[in-house]
Design brief:
98 residues; two-stranded antiparallel sheet; 1 helix; 4 strands; 18% strand; globular; binds FE2/S2 (inorganic) cluster
């Protein structure tokens, strides 16, 4: 069981949120639909953060999954070790022909 989320990317995802729309932010870092949940968290002990956008406009959702203000980036990604790897390539990349 995973207790620490994977780093999907070392920076935020820029999104255009729509007021009143419900979103499901991936907190485990395993989703292939970043920054949205695709159900990959099953079995990890982690769960997506569901939220409704308070207003329409640009937002920066955390990609490193270490933010202190989920689902939004708070700059914590700047403190990550340059050597700490992001998650492995997506399944579609791994299955691509050579
Ligand atoms: S991307 Fe995670 S804190 Fe910025």
């Amino acid at each position: 069981m995973t207790t620490e989320p994977e780093i999907a990317q070392k920076g935020p995802y820029e999104l255009d949120l729509i007021e009143g729309k419900r979103y499901h932010w991936c907190s485990c870092g395993l989703s292939l639909r970043q920054p949205h949940c695709d159900g990959s968290h099953r079995g990890t002990g982690l769960r997506p953060l569901n939220f409704t956008a308070a207003e329409t406009g640009k937002a920066w959702l955390c990609g490193c999954k270490r933010t202190g203000t989920p689902p939004f980036c708070d700059g914590t990604h700047n403190k990550l070790s340059k050597r700490k790897p992001c998650r492995p390539p997506s399944r579609s990349v791994l299955n691509a022909p050579h």
